[in-house]
Specification:
Elements (H helix, E strand, L loop, with lengths): L7 H21 L5 H64 L5 H26 L6
Helix pairs in contact: 1-2, 1-3
């Protein structure tokens, strides 16, 4: 908040860009060694949970106002909980088709990070224009 003046969308955009780069690193280099894989997973976790915390916690208060912050947080977290449910089915099916080829699974992760980056860039742009309160 000190560096960005409460503008969470800009910080979230930077971290989601880091997430995208980390997933690309995992896709391209992560299969070469255990150290590269562990580094990529660590970077993904670091860059993923920053925006997650900002958007689901503090952002919910901004979006929902103090009166409806709990409802906004519940909707955001409830929607976010669908991801793990769906990812287990989708990734499990991809793995069963070709257990030795992780390319489709890693491509799916890069695709999801790309979509998140585009959506966060859109939200950050709206916030910069004063059309979103983040």
């Amino acid at each position: 908040d000190r560096r960005f003046g409460g503008r969470r969308a800009g910080l979230s955009l930077i971290m989601v860009c880091g997430l995208l780069l980390s997933t690309i690193f995992l896709w391209l280099v992560g299969r070469q060694s255990v150290a590269a894989f562990a580094t990529a997973i660590g970077l993904i976790g670091f860059f993923l949970y920053g925006p997650d915390s900002l958007i689901t916690a503090a952002g919910a208060i901004d979006i929902g106002s103090p009166r409806y912050a709990l409802l906004a947080a519940g909707l955001i977290n409830g929607t976010g909980s669908l991801g793990p449910v769906l990812q287990e089915v989708i990734i499990g099916n991809l793995y069963q088709k070709e257990p030795t080829n992780l390319g489709p699974i890693l491509g799916l992760l890069v695709g999801a990070a790309s979509v998140a980056t585009v959506m966060m860039a859109w939200l950050a742009r709206r916030a910069q224009q004063g059309k979103a309160n983040l």
